[in-house]
Design goal:
single chain, two-stranded antiparallel ribbon, 16 helices
């Protein structure tokens, strides 16, 4: 086809060359005719010049004749008739020559213009035809070159495609053989599975009395698949929630306590004046806040402890959630109880003479915020009680509504956080205004700062809780709603409890089946022994240091023992001297008391009463170790030397026992400190080993990630090469289509050129 098209193009070029030659001949003929016309024009101009000269001569003759006529008028009169005739003849002849000359000038000008126009047209057409011929020649050359290249490329592609088709044919044959083998294997497997199915059906029909998965009541007792990762994740989330609840509980306790202090200080200080009965009642209720707030932390702790690795945690099995809901309800009742008093207290503060307009506006904003806070706690209690329903009454909350309840809890927590931010903002403004009051004390400023810090802690805790719940919303919805295989949900909490008991029994049975291998050491134990060997606290150096320290302590204790024995001997000598002096002084005092008793009986009675009171009241002696409370029997009337000695013996034995107890405690503390020091060294060694293992693991992880990236890159390269081959094939097909289109366009252009040349 390309050769035939090439021949057609050559014929078109030859025809165009012939047409250009004929046009050149026509141009030559036109040049000859133009030369003839120019010659005629030259002859006409010469003739016109002759006629112009003749006219000039005739005009001269006419002038001479007129001059002569003046001289001889008579002759003129006689010959006037003849001159008039000649003049008329000359005028007619001149007029004819002028008209002919004008006509010839017009014809010459028109012929000249027509010749120039025709010459320009022919020259432009000749240039266009020459340019077209050159372009056609260049197109023909480029097409021939391009077609030869495409022919060679197509021949190469044809050879490649033939080779590829042969390989594909071989692969197709192999695939046919494999399919035949797979069909044969499939037939064999179908036959084997059919026989096994018949056997299993016979066994089921003979051995299995009923299928418990068909009934939802029985299926609820089946143990679901255990997801250890899910349980660990839930326990981790429960631990985080418990930490957030602990923060909220601490902040709530501080908030209520400092609010109680604030009520007793402002607007009336209870230390200087009596506060109103309303604030007294409000303060009394706020004093009971710990009994309502602390159970929230305990309930969350019990809920966290109920979620273990071995249990199945769903809403039907989380029985402790009901207790947490009850604690939240009791705290909500506490908030409802103190809300009217709190609102009335703010209103009473607004009615005080110390309250300014700005402070009154802040109090009214807090008035609205406290109502909103109680409403948010009511919402939270409603949704938490709904979550606790599946563990008591499953029909109270369907599984399709779990997502709705969790979403509303997240929204309520975000609302709780927003309200606390407003409360913090309004409280800070209120505290700043209260500091400007002239009667503001330092105690009020400190209390306001404590309230602001507790509200800020509440705000931070609520924000953390809201973001935590929103981030794990999907996990809560999916993980707390799975059940037995083939069943939609648990029927009742009783069935869930039975399922957990069956799970424990199955785990115990499987554990009993596992027999330990006596020949080899378990892997975990070997790792533990290796760690103990690497970071042993009973190394030779550690023991040597401990022995040296213990020997030094023994030497110090021996020195202290000798010192205290000398001190005891000296104290014994001093005690004997003091006893002698006391005996002498007591004998003198007895005589004086007898005389005073006879003179002043009333004074003795008063002293007796005071001694009896002192006997009733314990004498407290404080020391560095602990508070000692001693009841010292004092007898005023009958005090004697043996009683004093016995009392001193009691005191001495007490202090000796106390000293022995303190020395034992000191020795115990020293031994514990040595033990703790050894443990710290061991932990430091373990930490260094763990750091080394972590570094090695990070290097291995980097190598693994590099291998993964390298494999991914090689995969991408293979995919790109595959795509490039596919793109090349598509480009070849597109190129062939475009070549056919260009050939058709060239044929059309050649036809149009032929038409234009014709």
């Amino acid at each position: 086809q390309l050769r035939a098209q090439n021949q057609v193009l050559k014929k078109g070029v030859v025809d165009e060359q012939a047409n250009s030659a004929s046009l050149k001949e026509q141009l030559k003929m036109k040049d000859q005719s133009l030369r003839k016309l120019q010659q005629e024009m030259d002859s006409l101009t010469f003739r016109n010049q002759q006629l112009a000269k003749r006219v000039e001569l005739l005009q001269d003759e006419l002038a001479l004749s007129e001059a002569r006529g003046k001289k001889n008028k008579k002759s003129v009169e006689s010959s006037s008739h003849l001159s008039q005739e000649q003049k008329s003849v000359f005028n007619e002849d001149l007029q004819k020559k002028i008209e002919e000359n004008e006509r010839l000038h017009i014809l010459f000008f028109e012929a000249d213009e027509q010749h120039k126009r025709l010459e320009a047209e022919l020259r432009s057409r000749l240039e266009v035809l020459e340019m077209d011929a050159a372009q056609h020649q260049a197109v023909v050359d480029s097409l021939t070159k391009k077609y030869t290249e495409t022919i060679e490329k197509l021949q190469n592609d044809k050879a490649k495609l033939e080779i590829k088709s042969q390989t594909l044919e071989r692969e197709a044959k192999d695939c046919r053989l494999r399919t035949e083998e797979c069909q044969q294997q499939l037939k064999n497997l179908q036959a084997a599975l059919g026989s096994r199915l018949e056997e299993s059906l016979c066994i089921i029909n003979e051995k299995v009395p009923f299928n418990d998965t068909r009934s939802t009541r029985y299926n609820a007792l089946n143990v679901p698949l255990h997801n250890r990762r899910n349980q660990l994740k839930l326990r981790d989330l429960a631990g985080q929630a418990m930490a957030f609840v602990q923060e909220l509980v601490t902040a709530l306790l501080n908030f209520h306590t400092y609010t109680e202090q604030k009520v007793q200080i402002f607007p009336i200080d209870s230390a200087t004046d009596t506060i109103s009965p309303l604030n007294q009642k409000f303060s009394q209720y706020l004093h009971e806040n710990a009994s309502y707030v602390r159970p929230l932390e305990e309930g969350m702790l019990h809920l966290f402890e109920s979620i273990t690795e071995d249990t199945v945690t769903v809403l039907e099995t989380t029985v402790k959630l009901k207790a947490f809901s009850e604690h939240l309800a009791s705290y909500l009742g506490f908030l409802r109880k103190i809300l009217p008093y709190q609102l009335k207290s703010l209103e009473e503060e607004c009615e005080s003479s110390l309250c300014t307009a700005a402070l009154r506006a802040r109090n009214m904003e807090l008035h609205r915020d406290m109502k909103r806070l109680t409403a948010v706690f009511e919402k939270l209690h409603t949704y938490v009680s709904l979550l606790a329903l599946p563990s008591t009454r499953p029909e109270g909350l369907l599984r399709t509504n779990y997502n709705f309840v969790f979403t509303n809890i997240a929204a309520s927590l975000h609302g709780f956080h927003d309200i606390l931010k407003d409360i913090s903002k309004h409280y800070s403004q209120k505290a700043a205004l209260e500091q400007e009051v002239p009667t503001a004390t330092q105690k009020l400023v400190i209390t306001n700062d404590c309230i602001l810090s507790s509200v800020a802690a509440l705000t931070n805790g609520a924000g953390k809780m809201a973001s935590f719940f929103s981030n794990n919303l999907d996990h809560f919805t999916t993980s707390l709603s799975y059940g037995p295989k083939g069943g939609a949900e648990f029927i009742s909490p009783l069935s869930a409890e039975c399922m957990l008991q069956y799970k424990k029994k199955a785990a115990a049975y499987v554990k009993s089946l596992k027999k330990p291998c006596a020949d080899s050491v378990p892997y975990e134990e070997a790792l533990a022994n290796r760690r103990v060997l690497l970071s042993s606290t009973e190394s030779r150096e550690g023991l040597a240091q401990q022995v040296q320290q213990s020997l030094e302590k023994i030497a110090k204790l021996e020195q202290e023992k000798e010192h205290w024995m000398l001190e005891a001997q000296l104290a014994k000598i001093k005690l004997e001297k003091e006893n002698q002096k006391l005996k002498n002084s007591l004998s003198g005092h007895l005589t004086e008391t007898i005389q005073e008793h006879s003179v002043l009986p009333n004074i003795a009675e008063q002293k007796k009463e005071t001694t009896e009171k002192s006997l009733r009241e314990p004498i407290k002696s404080t020391s560095l170790v602990r508070n000692l409370t001693l009841r010292v029997p004092i007898r005023v009337t009958n005090c004697s030397a043996p009683d004093v000695e016995s009392r001193e013996d009691l005191i001495k034995t007490h202090y000796m026992a106390r000293i022995a107890e303190l020395t034992s405690h000191l020795q115990l503390a020293d031994s514990k400190s040595v033990h703790f020091h050894a443990e710290c060294r061991a932990l430091a060694k373990r930490l260094s080993l763990a750091e080394k293992s972590r570094e090695s693991l990070t290097e291995e992880l980097k190598l693994a990630s590099q291998n993964i990236t390298r494999l991914q890159a090689s995969k991408d390269e293979l995919m790109t090469t595959k795509r490039s081959y596919e793109d090349q094939l598509s480009m070849m097909s597109d190129h062939l289509c475009s070549m056919n289109e260009t050939l058709t366009k060239q044929r059309e252009e050649i036809d149009t050129l032929k038409m234009t040349s014709k």
